[in-house]
Amino acid sequence: MKYVSKKRNKKIIYITILLIMLWIILWYMYNTYNKIEINQNSYQTTRLQSTNYSENVENITNKSNTLADKIEDVTKSVVGISKLKNTGSSILDNNSEEKLGLGTGIIVSSNGYILSNQHLTGEKYSKCYVTLEDGKTYDASVVWSDIDLDLSILKINEKDLAVLIFTSGTTSASKAVMLSQYNIAKNIHDMLMVEKFKSSDVNIAFLPYHHAFGSTGQLVMLASGIQTVFPDGLKYIGQNLKEYGVTVFVGVPKLIEAIYDRVNKEIEKQGKTKLIKTAKLFTNFLLKCKIDVRRKAYKKIINNLGGLRFVISGAAALNKDVANGFYELGIETVQGYGLTETAPVVAAENYKYRKSGSIGFPMPSVDVEIVNKDENGIGELKVKGPNVMMGYYQNEKATKEVIKDGWFYTGDLAYRDKEGYIFIAGRKKNMIVLKNGKKIFPEEMEDLVNQIDLVEESFVFGMPKGDDLLLSVEIKYNEKVAKEKYPNLNEEEIKKKTA
């Protein structure tokens, strides 16, 4: 018994020492990571001087008598005032401790006008007071509120045509998709149910509004009470993320991958690649034990991305390494799938359910089925739900080709794993079938080829050879990476080396 007792005591001592060592290593890494900086000089910085938001707010004074004048004064300083949206301001009724609600309204206080992110549902000119983040409280009165709007005059038929959005027309002539108010509203509702948006978030509007992904995405932000900022252009994106404190980024894989690549290059430049890799082993281990220290451990990296916390990728497949890389840093990264014809989101991952390479599960109000499966369970994805379009504008023939018995046939090939996660294999029209019956999905091959450092873009296709097809690929090399990798070779020699 004594021998067993001694052995048990030794085991406890060893475990205690191991835990202490682990704690010391994590403490050291946390303090070291906080020294990692992303060099802002790598971004082009020719810009107008930033607005001093706090000065703008304090300089707003009440020198007008009419409501129109007051609103005009507020509008002139909207850039400065809107920054108050995320400063923790609160508006309380003088007669109670209840907040007046969430939304938008205008109050006038002793320190000027303030555009609030709350619904002012009290009567116009009712007295209230405002407490700002600095702790100061101001007497105020409501000069405009939601209650002033008579929404009954707005007659909306949810099933009527609301918007026409043209498809990209990459494989055929572009078609005008008819979407109703109901199509769009239901898709927004589904997104709000699935994804973790916060009213304190800041979104950067990088996607074009004439695309369904951009327009519906922006409506989701508005419905969530999220502040939206606009970029100064592609070359300023890194600077804008930090400058505006962007926390939500919705974009296409190419752009998301470029941001991640820039982060990695900066870490490599500072000689801390091995350190970060080692750190990820520990933080990933702790995450499996339900201990999440990622955003604390990589605080400096995240801060240099503006405090980014949530990335949504769509329109094409996101590189798995990029998605996992952001996730390991503590930046929630999800991938979604949709089409213009489905207003647009069909399925998406979320903070609770995500699997590398998948598009997650269907939206709550959407049904999906995979039909005409092959031996590997891959078949065409069809969709049914309130988000499916009314049809193609003045093109009944094309509408009937894709909508049958209420189901929209996407033309995309997909499969589901044992857990029900959906994976997109490629376009039905793009599939290459070899003489031996082997089916090749170009998108999957291109995804693999594009992971090579020297490759910027690739195009996989079937080259006719006799009565069969020869799997072929055209590659566009990244000239910048090639010159870095082969600095002593001229352009012709690089082409021969990479051929």
Folded structure, characterized:
This protein has 499 residues and is of the alpha+beta class. It has 16 helices and 24 strands. Helix content is 34%, strand content 24%. It has helices at 2-33, 53-58, 67-76, 78-82, 181-194, 212-223, 237-244, 253-269, 273-288, 294-297, 299-303, 320-328, 396-402, 442-449, 479-485, 491-498, and strands at 90-93, 105-109, 112-116, 127-131, 137-144, 161-166, 176-180, 202-204, 227-229, 248-251, 310-313, 332-338, 345-348, 361-362, 367-371, 379-384, 391-392, 403-404, 407-416, 422-427, 432-433, 439-440, 455-465, 468-477. Mean pLDDT is 75; it is low at 33-122 and 144-149. The strands form six sheets. It has a seven-stranded mixed sheet, sandwiched between helices.
Q: What does this entry show, briefly?
A:
The chain is 34% helix and 24% strand. The chain has 499 residues and is α+β, with helices and mostly antiparallel strands.
**What is the terminal-to-terminal distance?**
72 Å
Proportion of residues in extended strands: 15-25%
Q: Any idea what the radius of gyration is?
A: 27 Å
Number of helices: 16
Structural class: alpha+beta
Order of adjacent strands in the largest pleated sheet: 9-8-10-11-12-13-14
Coarse shape? globular
What's the total number of strands? 24
Sheet bearing the most strands, described?
7 strands, mixed
The averaged pLDDT comes out at: 75
Q: What kind of assembly state do the chains in view correspond to? A: single chain
Determine the fraction of residues in helical runs and give it as a percent range. 25-40%
Uncertain residue ranges: 33-122, 144-149
